[in-house]
Specification:
α1 packs antiparallel against α2 and α4 runs parallel beside α5. The N terminus is likely disordered. The strands form two sheets. Strands 2, 3, 4, 5, 11, 12, 13, 14 and 15 form a nine-stranded mixed β-sheet that branches. A six-stranded mixed β-sheet has the order 1-6-7-8-10-9, with helices on one face. The protein contains seven helices and 15 strands. The chain folds into two domains: 53 residues; 251 residues, 4-Layer Sandwich (Purple Acid Phosphatase, chain A, domain 2). The longest helix has 20 residues. The protein has 329 residues and is α/β, with parallel strands linked by helices. β9 and β10 form a beta hairpin.
Amino acid sequence: MPIFRRKPKVSHEAFAEMFRKHGVQGTAQLLQVHERRVFERRTRAEAALGIKLESPIGPGGTKPGERDADLAGVEAPRMEIDFTDGVVLVGGDAHYWPGPSTTAHRGFCYFAKELKPKIVIMNGDALDASSISRHPPIGWEGLPSLADELAAVQERLGEITTASRRARRIWPLGNHDARFNTRLAMQTPEFRHVPGTRLVDHFPDWEPCWAAFIGGQGGAVVKHRFKGGIHAPHNNAMWAGRTMITGHLHSQKVTPFTDYNGTRWGVDAGCLAAPRGPQFTYIEENPRNHVSGFCVLTWAKGVLLPPELATVISEERGIIWFRGKEIAV
C-alpha cells in the first residue's frame, strides 16, 4: 500500500529563506507547526539543497529572542517586574467575539476596580481570530469578520482599562493572538514594520510580552502556556522552579508543588470566555473541562501568598464565587 505524505506548505528553497530569516521558533509560528517539525524539515531541506541552514544569529542576523519579538511585535519578550506588596489580577483566554460580555469579563472589570490591583494581566488569547485560523470552517458556520473581532477586543479591553486606570496593564501573547501577525507575515511580508500590521499596534494601553516575571525568584511567572495536558499546572511549577500562572487549557486549578526550596504553585487561571460560547462550536457539544474565571495574586512584604481563584458559578445569573462569597456582576 502506498504511503501518502502531506504536501509541504512551502518549497525547500522558500523554507531555507524563511529559516535563515526567522530561525526555528519564528519559522514554526509562520508555518503554524511544532518546532520539532521545523527541525525535521530543516534536515530534509539541507539534504535536498546540499547546504547547511543556520539560524539568524550573528552578523547580519539577530540575537536569540529578537526574531520572536519582531515577529509578534513584542518589544520585551521577558518582562522583569520588582514587586513586594499589592495585588496582581490575572485573566486570559477571553476569545472575545462581538456580542454581550461574559460574567467572567464583567467580574474581571469589577475586581479591577474593587481590589485596586497594581498590575492587571490579560494572559493571552484576547483575540480568537477564527476567520484566519489554520483549521477549516465547519460547514457554513457563521464566523465574525476579523475587523468585528478586533473591534470587540478593543471594546472589552477598553472596559478593563477604564476599571484599572492606575494599574500597569500587561498582555503576554497567546497562540490565538499570534494568528493576526502570522497571517500578515505569511501573506504580505512586504508590509513588515508598517504601522497597524502588528496586533499590539491596536492596543497602546497594554504592554506586550511573552512572559512577565513578577517579584523576583520567589515570585511568579505569568505566560500564556508552557506544559500541556491535565497535569500542566504541576509540571509548570516543577519545571519553572517558581510559581507559574498560565491559561490555554481553560480548566482553572491551583496545584501546590513543594520541595527543599519551599512551596510554589502551578495555576491554570481558567477562561474569561463562557465555556459554551460560540467560539467553541468545534468541540461538537462534547463534554469540556473548561471553567470560567480568573486568578488573584497577592504579595505581602515580599512574600507571594497562595493564589486565589474567582470562579463563575452561574453564567445565566452572573454570579462569581470568591473567598467564600457569591458576587453578582
